């Protein structure tokens, strides 16, 4: 039994808790922040500007500062414990001004967040005296300059965030970090750490560090000693993206971190294979995208069973995707976009139950689509949200299972080799936002069920072989559709003239729909549409006035007529493009706004000069990037106003009637990539100023009247040149060996000029005609990309190439064309043996020169040669047998040389035209003569040979020449010795001259008189 005078311990504990709680509640009801801390906060406020009224609740009339916005106090002591004054609103300025040291009176402050504001000056050094701080966040707070070392005095700090998206902060050393040894989270992203060469050793002194973010800090590859990396094994989150690491040698310590969960090394310059990683890894997130990795996908990735996110996009990874990907049962994102992976996509990838995003875009993957995605698991169909397989070599058909995804939002199969029909049940994909099937070989009709995709925003089906009629039903429920691209099919649009579409389009491409007229419903889109393509539609009309306000307009290859108005309006700083080629526009060139970036007016009937267009002073400079005015009726000279157009990358004004010289201001176009001035009346020398255009990849000045020498600077300064066409001018002099510096050259045409001397021996340096290119390479090289003031842009190139005795226009496969043409000059010497090293050369023309010597034996190594013309030279000897094995050769002309012997026997050569061998001493097919002993071998037109090989005709001419020489010597000798004979001879000649002169004059006088009588 319990004694009344001795209560039990349990009862005493209950009484204590009751008493403590009562006292606490009583105390808390009366607690307020200390007056000194209230005054400190008010002083802090008064030193700042607060346009967003973040501190509007801070006023002296409120006794308790613990009730102010952003102020949190300790619930027992009342001391200010936390200040949360961050500005989350990106549209507001937040707090600005200088920080007041009155904060030092907040001696119990443990948490300070001032992120997202706009403070002035440097981070105040007094902040290191807030000794109790455990959390400090000054990210994007407007500070600049060097981070003070005093931050290292905050020994209790657990979290330090100094991220600076404005990139105004830097450090001169990180040694001060050793003072915050309890640190668990550190974020110094965008802080300039370029002066730090021991950041790993410093980080190693933070044994409790769990999270480290040093994104975009200008860190480089300084390798630490692995012996020192022992204290940061707790690290779980590591972000080193956007730095300047070039080698994994400086980062091998990372792959010894056994607790690493998150790894981001993206946007560096890392090369080679990724080092092996510990088998005990706990990795869940790996991002090593945008580097220069050139190995296979690392095997260890396939055995990180907790892996959820993998991104290796934009590298040079090769090989195949391993079936071991089946081990990644937790994987929800696999991004291998833009690599060089080949082979088939493993079937097991379509059985991963947590996969949400699969992006294998821009690789070399092949195989039947149905082999991988013809038997997808139910959980895969349930989980997948984004499937991107575009720009590969996938073939086959889409199966009906593609209509069974439950949550698919993006389906991108564009730019493959897919065929067959589009499955009707795609209309069941109710979550689908983007459907991209462009540039394939799909046939049949466009399913009407597409009109049921009420969440669809992007529909891209251009450049297929679809046919049939498209009606209102195809768009019935597409209320969210904003991008519709369907050019390049055989579709026909048939809708009611009064039809009002349910959508408001931003982009519409209806090229090649044979519309004939502009659809009336299109006017309902004029408030939203920014990109409109009605090319190849046979529309004969004046352009509606509201079309000229569309920022991106393509009306090319129609029959639009009338004058083009000045394009002087623009929507803010948004760039504009205007493609109006191959129509019937007339009048003068329009003036353009500074926002117009792409202008193609080629193949119209525009006339007049270019001064008003180029020299318009409305704007100081213009933003035009692409200018195409070819095949018009422009006249006059080029004005010297190109300094107003510094952004130009592409100029094509070929096939006009422009004369004069190239103005010197052309040299100010330092970003120029392509220059076409062909088929005009330009004269003078190629100006030296053009050598400042060092980025040029193409120059075509053919069919003009340029004279002077080939400038050596073209080879020494314009070293990226791929195409150089100068044919049909009046250029002369020797071809300098400096031209051999053009390693990327793939087309060189100097034909029909007056060059003399020998062909440079160093032509083997044209490695652009040595490296093999495939259609896959063409996919990435057929357009030239460049950064402009308006972002990443591209342009498709074309060129007129003289080969096989004709001139051909190449555009879609231009990057695969390789050609050297030096014909119709005065070149002498032999054919350099180095030419035969150009094993990928497609066409070689050296005809119409004075070349001597033998045809090089190594010519048989030029396996890709399709056209060879060595005619009208002085080559001798036999035709090399190697020519007979050139399986690609389909044009050969060796006529009018001094070649002898039998034509090598091959099916290839026997099928050639016999005219390609005449004018030589050759026999055998395709010539009509055989090579038997009694056969007559046709030789040059000025020679005849008998069947025995000894020429009687040659002996006749030899004796005839000797007799003529002896007779002439006798006559001349006699006249020199006998003076009387000499005088009689010249008197005879004078008398004969007088008679002939009188006879001719009389006859001429009579003829003139007769003509005069007839015409009177």
CATH architecture of one domain: Alpha-Beta Horseshoe
- Distance between the first and last residues' Cα: 166 Å
- Per CATH, the class of one domain reads Alpha Beta
The overall strand count is 63
**CATH superfamily assignment of one domain?**
Ribonuclease Inhibitor
Q: Give the helix tally.
A: 11
- Outline the low-pLDDT stretches: 1-5, 18-29, 774-795, 934-961, 993-1016
**Using only CA atoms, what is the Rg?**
41 Å
Briefly note the CATH topology name of one domain: Leucine-rich repeat, LRR (right-handed beta-alpha superhelix)
Kindly name the structural category: alpha/beta
Largest sheet: 33 strands, mixed
The 3D shape can be described as: globular
Main location: membrane
Subcellular location: Cell membrane
Membrane topology: Single-pass type I membrane protein
Pfam family, one: LRR_1
Polypeptide structure, described:
- With 1016 residues, this protein is α/β, with parallel strands linked by helices.
- Among the domains are: 446-539; 553-678, Alpha-Beta Horseshoe (Leucine-rich repeat, LRR (right-handed beta-alpha superhelix)), CATH 3.80.10.10; 963-1016.
- Helix content is 13%, strand content 22%.
- Strand 51 (783-788) and strand 52 (791-796) form a beta hairpin.
- It is globular and about 135 Å long.
- The model is unreliable at 1-5, 18-29, 774-795, 934-961 and 993-1016 (pLDDT under 50).
- Residues 1-26 form the signal peptide.
- Keywords: Cell membrane, Glycoprotein, Leucine-rich repeat, Membrane, Receptor, Repeat, Signal, Transmembrane, Transmembrane helix.
- Residues 35-73 form the Leucine-rich repeat-containing N-terminal plant-type domain.
- Pfam families: LRR_1 (PF00560), LRR_14 (PF23598), LRR_8 (PF13855), LRRNT_2 (PF08263).
